[in-house]
Automatic annotation (TrEMBL):
Keyword check for Nucleotide-binding: no
Bilayer-spanning residue ranges: 32-51, 165-183, 203-224, 230-247, 267-285, 291-308, 328-348, 354-375
Protein's recorded name: MFS transporter
CDD domains found in the cross-reference section: MFS_MJ1317_like (cd17370)
Every Major facilitator superfamily (MFS) profile domain range: 7-379
Protein origin, superkingdom: Bacteria
Length: 380
C-alpha cells in the first residue's frame, strides 16, 4: 500500500494477535468471575473500573516518558510484554482479587504501550497517509476482536474449560511479542523541543470536545442490555458482537484513506452524527431487527472515528511531542468514559432507556458542531 511502511504492517499485525489473545478471554471473564469463582457483579465492576482507569492515566505518563527519553519501541515492548505475561495467568486464579491483580497488570501493559505505539506508527508514516495507516491498525485490531471470540467459542464447543481457554490465549500473545522484534525505530531525537503556542490551544479545544463526546459514549454493555430487552436471544449476542467488530474492521481502512483526501474533521463529524442517529434510533427501537440494524450501523461510527481521530492528533501535535499528545488524548477519553456509563445507568434507572440514549445522542451532536467550528484541522 502506498505510503504504508513495514513498521505500520508489523504494528497492525501485532495489534491483531494481541487482540485475538485479549478477546479470547474478555467475553468469558464475567462468567468466570461470577460463576466459576462465585464473586458478585460488584466485584466485577470494581475489577473493570480500576483496570480501565489505570490504563487511561498511564497512557499520559508513558507518552510523556517516551517524549522525554526520545524512545518509542522499548516502552511499547515493555507494555506488550506485561500484558501478554499476565493475561493468560487469569486461568490459574482461585479468587476474584487474584483476577483483579492480573487484569490490573494487563491494563498497565495497555496503558504503557498505547501512546508510544501511536507515536511510533505516526513517525513511520508519510503525512499524506496517516489516516490510512491508523485505519489499517484499527482494522486489524477489530479483526482480532472478531477472531478471538470465535476461537473461544470453538474451544468451548470442543470441551475446553474456561481455565484452559485462558491459558490457550498465551499462544497468539507470544506471536505478537515475536512480531515486535523486527519493528525499527529511528535513532536519535525527532526534532527540536516543542514550544507552547497556538497549537496547544487548538489541541486543548480538541481534547475538551472529545471529552464532551465521550461523556455521552457509555459502555457497549448497555447496548447488549437493549438487545436482550427487545427479545434478542442470549445465544445470539456473541454473533451480534462479532458482526459489530466485523463492520468496524471493514470500515476502518477506507475511512482512514478518505481522511487523507479530505478534512479529517468532516470524517469524524460524520462518525459522530452516525453515533447520534444510532442512539436516537435505539431510544425508540422495540423490535429485534431494528436493534440489529442499528448495531451494524454503530460499527460504522467506530470505523469513521477511531483511526481518524488518532491521525488528527498527529496533524495537531509536532512529532517530538506526539507521544505526550496521544497520552493526553487517551486520558481525555478515559476521564470521560468513567462517568459516562454511571450517568447512563442512572438515567436508565431513574427516567428511561430512551432518555439515557437520547442524552448520549444529544452530546454527540453538540460535540460534532464544536469540532467543526472550534478546531483547526491542520497544525500551523
Amino acid at each position: 500500500m502506498r505510503g504504508i511502511g513495514r513498521n505500520v504492517i508489523l504494528l497492525s499485525l501485532i495489534s491483531l494477535f494481541n487482540d485475538i489473545s485479549s478477546e479470547i478471554i474478555y467475553p468469558l471473564l464475567p462468567i468466570f468471575i461470577t460463576s466459576v469463582l462465585g464473586a458478585s457483579t460488584v466485584a466485577l465492576g470494581i475489577i473493570e473500573g480500576v483496570a480501565e482507569s489505570t490504563a487511561s492515566i498511564l497512557k499520559l505518563f508513558s507518552g510523556y516518558l517516551s517524549d522525554r527519553v526520545r524512545k518509542r519501541k522499548p516502552i511499547v515492548v515493555l507494555g506488550y510484554l506485561i500484558s501478554n505475561l499476565s493475561r493468560p495467568l487469569i486461568g490459574i486464579t482461585n479468587f476474584a482479587y487474584q483476577v483483579g491483580i492480573f487484569r490490573f497488570l494487563d491494563r498497565i501493559g495497555k496503558g504503557t504501550r498505547t501512546a508510544p505505539r501511536d507515536a511510533l506508527l505516526s513517525a513511520s508514516t508519510e503525512k499524506e497517509s496517516l489516516g490510512r495507516a491508523f485505519g489499517l491498525q484499527r482494522a486489524f485490531d477489530h479483526l482480532g476482536a472478531v477472531i478471538g471470540p470465535l476461537i473461544a467459542l470453538s474451544l468451548l464447543s470442543a470441551g475446553f474449560s474456561l481455565r484452559n481457554i485462558f491459558l490457550f490465549a498465551a499462544i497468539p500473545g507470544v506471536v505478537a511479542l515475536l512480531l515486535l522484534i523486527p519493528v525499527q525505530e529511528k535513532a536519535g531525537g525527532e526534532g527540536k523541543r516543542f514550544s507552547i503556542g497556538r497549537i496547544d490551544q487548538n489541541y486543548l479545544r480538541f481534547l475538551i470536545i472529545v471529552l464532551i463526546f465521550t461523556l455521552g459514549n457509555s459502555s457497549d454493555a448497555f447496548l447488549i442490555l437493549k438487545a436482550t430487552a427487545v427479545g434478542i436471544p442470549l445465544m445470539m449476542i456473541p454473533i451480534l458482537w462479532v458482526l459489530l467488530h466485523l463492520v468496524k474492521s471493514i470500515s476502518s481502512t477506507p475511512a482512514g484513506m478518505l481522511s487523507d483526501r479530505i478534512d479529517r474533521r468532516y470524517v469524524i463529524v460524520l462518525g459522530w452524527i452516525i453515533y447520534s442517529a444510532v442512539y436516537f434510533g435505539l431510544a425508540w427501537a422495540h423490535r429485534p431487527y431494528q436493534v440489529l440494524i442499528f448495531f451494524l450501523i454503530y460499527g460504522l461510527y467506530f470505523g469513521l472515528t477511531e483511526g481518524v481521530e488518532r491521525a488528527l492528533v498527529a496533524d495537531l501535535i509536532p512529532r517530538e511531542k506526539r507521544a505526550t499528545g496521544y497520552g493526553l488524548y487517551h486520558l481525555a477519553v478515559g476521564i470521560g468514559a468513567l462517568p459516562a456509563s454511571v450517568l447512563f445507568g442512572i438515567f436508565w434507572r431513574l427516567f428511561s432507556p430512551a432518555f439515557a440514549f437520547g442524552f448520549g445522542a444529544g452530546l454527540a451532536l453538540i460535540a460534532a458542531l464544536l469540532l467543526l467550528f472550534l478546531v483547526r484541522s491542520k497544525a500551523e
